[in-house]
Amino acid sequence: MRIVTWNVNSLKARQPFVEAYLDEQSPDVLCLQELKLQTDKVPTEIFEARGYDVAVHGQKQWNGVLIASKLGLQDVLCGFNDIEQGQSRLIAATVGGIRLVNVYCPQGQSAQSDKFAYKLRFYDELLRWLPGELQANSTTALLGDLNIAREARDIFDERRFAGQPSYHPKEHERWDALLDLGLVDVCKPWLAPGSYTFWDYRGGSWQRDLGMRIDHVLGSANFAARCRDARVVRQWRKDRDADKASDHAPLEITLSTNELKG
DNA sequence: ATGGTAGCACGGCTA
After folding, report:
1. Phi, psi torsion values for A23, nearest 5 degrees
2. 0.85 exceeded by the pTM?
3. Whether CATH 3.40.50.150 fits A2-255
4. Is the C or the N end of chain A the one with fewer CB within 10 Å?
5. Domain extents for chain A?
C-alpha cells in the first residue's frame, strides 16, 4: 500500500503532472496540498476516472487540500478548529482502516510577523486536537506540508535559517510535542541526509540542490511499524516539456498491508 | 547582493 503526500502549488497549474503521476506511479492514496482552488472548481474527474474516491476541502486562491483513495474513504473531516479562520488547511479521512490527517501548515513568513505567531498557534491547536484522533484510531498519521525542518540534515544551510520560519526553535518545540504524543517521523529511517522535499523557485535552488525536508509523515506506533519504505520522488520536481513543476516533490511511503504479517 | 520565481488574478499578496 503506497501513500503519497505532495504539495502541488496549484492543482490547476499542476494538473498535467498530477494526471501523469496517477498514470505512471498509481499510488493507492494521494494527499495533496495547496490546491489553490475552491472545492467546486477542483477537477475531481481526473481522480474518479482512474478509480479513486476523492474528498476535497478547497479554498479560492490559497491553501486547499484533498485526499484521493483507491481503497475508499470513510469519516471525512474538513477542518478541525476555529484557528483555521476560513483557511482550508486540513482534511482527514479513514482509508483501509488507517486514519490520515492531511495538513498544509502555515508557512510563517518571517519570525517577527503575525503569520509566524499564527503558525505557532495553529500548531498549538493541532496538538490539542490530535490526541482525540490518536485515541479513536491507533493507526493514524499526520502527513503533508508541515513547513518545519527539524534537523540540520533536513536543511541545506542551518546557519542561514537559524531563527527563521521552517527552522525556528519554537517550531522545533511544536515538532517535539508532536513526538511526545507518540508520533514517529516514519520517513527518516529510509531517507539519507539531504533528502529534501522542497526547493524554492528562486535563486536556482533546485539546480543547486538548496532544499529543505518540510513534507513529512508522522505516524502512530502502529502506523510506523507497518512502514516498509519511504522515498522522495525527485523526478516530479523537474519541469516537463512546457509544464512547470511544483516547488515540492512528492513523498511516497509504502506500508505492509497487514500489520501482523509485516 | 533583503535579491530571486511562481501562482492567483490583474495589484499585491503568499510562499
Report:
1. -70, -40
2. yes
3. no
4. C
5. 2-255
